[in-house]
Structure formats: structure tokens, C-alpha cells
Amino acid sequence: MKTLKSIIYLSLFVLAACSGQDNKEVKMAKANWDTGYFQAEVYKMALEELGYKVTEPKAIKPSIFYVAAAQGDLDLWVNGWFGTHDTYLAETKGKVKKVGYVMKKGGLQGYLVDKKTADRLNIKSVLDIKKHAKQFDANNDGKADMVACPPGWGCEKQITKHFAELKLGEFINPIQAEYSASMADALARYKNGKSVLFYTWTPNWTVGAFKLGTDVVWIEVPYSKTKVTEVANATKPSINLGFGADDIRPAANVAFLKKNPKVEKLLKVASIPLTDIAAQNMQMNKGEKSERQVKDHAKAWVKINQKTFDSWIAAAK
After folding, report:
1. Which of 44, 203, 224, 256 is the residue whose CA sits 20 to 30 A from 167?
2. 0.70 cut: is pTM over it?
3. Among residues 52, 54, 61, 53, which one has the least CA distance to residue 79?
4. What whole-number distance in Å separates Cα of residue 311 and Cα of residue 2?
């Protein structure tokens, strides 16, 4: 009888101890823009090194991620753009939070025009496009065609606000098809001597394929809710881009982080330099964009930055 009681007490002790341990599975997502895949893979490797089993991240829209994370169907991703994603975060009513920084103030966003056209027609602002819409009209509908954000992206909401306040829809047609394919079309048009107008962000392969300040320039978007700032490679030294400079940050389910403090510690200390992300994005633009190749890029980065990577793990344990 004493033996049986001892076994029961021991079992209860083990169960209690196990309940206090971190949950060893992470349900991870990644952005559905390919310039964020590399960061997701590096963080996945860090979580695995910390001892977690990480589900293969599925590429989803921000509008879907924050809802799924709030419901507990997903635990985290590292592709949050704040403040662009602030509205999504608010809708989770405190169930999802941002933690740590992949990159501080690295997420520049805005509209660009090829420099040759901007100089020739004296285009400084998106409002100047109105007088020259035919210059950017690829489908002969009388409106300028602009590569914009696909539905469900955070930037789509901001662009919609621009169109409403500035009445851009009267002379601009936003192209909302798959972004990389649309930008490839824009690049081909540019190489054929045509004028181009597009939305983009940094880091992104597009600002490697189009050289900032040489091939393309940022133009002003005089939206009332954003401020004028100093911007390099723009039509003037200080302009309003229509977007704030975003922080790229992990976002995670709050309850999950409470159960897994090691994960929160990791997310707080890990980060990747802008130059490294931009370099990897250019590798993708040159054709190295398969899932296996992106994983190889992440492994190569970790190997080169092994001391930094190891310091993340040590700090999280």
C-alpha cells in the first residue's frame, strides 16, 4: 500500500513538474510576401535550437494571421510591420502582442516613379501623376497603372486611405495582383523604356533591381495623417511618404508567451541587420527563391553569425 501511495505521489510530482515546463511546440506562420521568408527561417532555426518543435510556417496574409493568433490557432510570426499592422493588433483585444525587434525603423514604404520620367515631367508628388496619367497607362483605360498591395496586406489599408483622401482613384488604377509578378512586369516595362509607378517597401528586392536614386525615386504622398521626414533618393530632401517608418517585429499570442517564457526571451534579443536581409532578398531576385534555397540562405547566415546566434540561445535559456 505504501508502495502504491509512493508511486501515486511520484506521478503527481512528475505531472506538476511537467506542467510548469515550456510547451515544446510552436505553431508558426510567415508573411505571404517572399521578402519575409528569410527572417522567418532564421527565427525558426533559433526556436529549434532552443528545443522546440516548430511547425513548417505557412505563408498567410496579415489579416488572417492576427485573427488566428488571437484564437490560439497560431502562436507567432516574425513578420509584423508596426505601425502598419497596429489596426490588426488592436482588433485582437490584447490577445496578441508585439515583442522584440527583427529590425528597428527599417521598414520604409512609399510610392516610386522612374527617375527619368520624374525629371522630365517634374513629378514631385503623386498628385502630379494626374497631369501625366497616360504616361503610366499600360492598358489604355486613361488612368495611370500603379503596382499596389494585394488584398489582405496591411499596406492595402493605408493605400485605400490615400485614395480616399487624395482622390487618387480618379487618375490611378491600383494593380492588386500577386506582388512579385506585378513588379516583374513593371521591371520589364522599365527595361523597355516605359514609365513606371509602384508601391514598395524596404528591405525588398525591388530596390535592388531598381537602383534608388538612379533608376527610381520616392515621390510625395501628401496624406494628412503622416509627417514630412528626411528621405534619401526622393524627389526632394524632405517629403511625406504617406507611411510611417515601420519597425519589423515578432507578434505572438499572449497566453502562449506566458506558458513559454523562453520564447519571449528569444524574441526580445534576436534581430537581423537590414543589410543582411536586403542581400538575401537580392539572392532571391536572382533566382534563388525556392523553399530549399531560402533555408540554405538562413543556414549560411547562422553559420557566418554563429556567435550572435548562440548568444540569443544563451540569453533565452
Report:
1. 203
2. yes
3. 61
4. 48
Q: Are residues 101 and 250 in the same domain?
A: yes
Range of the structural domain that residue 134 is part of = 109-240
Q: How far is it, in rounded angstroms, from Cα 143 to Cα 136? A: 8
Distance from C-alpha of 149 to C-alpha of 95, rounded to nearest angstrom: 27
Q: What is the pLDDT of residue 22?
A: 57
User: What 3-state DSSP class applies to 103?
Assistant: strand
Q: Are residues 37 and 81 in the same domain?
A: yes
Question: Rounded to an integer, what distance in angstroms lies between the CA atom of residue 221 and that of residue 237?
Answer: 14
| Model pLDDT for residues 257-307, shown as the tens digit of each residue | 999 999 999 999 999 998 899 899 989 988 999 999 999 999 999 999 999
* 236-266: pLDDT as tens digits: 999 999 998 889 999 999 999 999 999 999 9
Compute the average pLDDT of residues 219-225: 97
Judge if 123 and 217 occupy the same domain: yes
CA 182-58-73 angle, 5° bins: 130
- Same-domain status, 252 and 230: no
User: Strand runs (DSSP E) across the chain, as ranges?
Assistant: 25-26, 29-31, 53-54, 58-60, 76-82, 96-98, 103-107, 109-114, 144-147, 172-175, 197-201, 216-219, 228-230, 238-240, 246-253
Q: Find residue 304's DSSP bridge partners.
A: none
- Residue 23, pLDDT score: 62
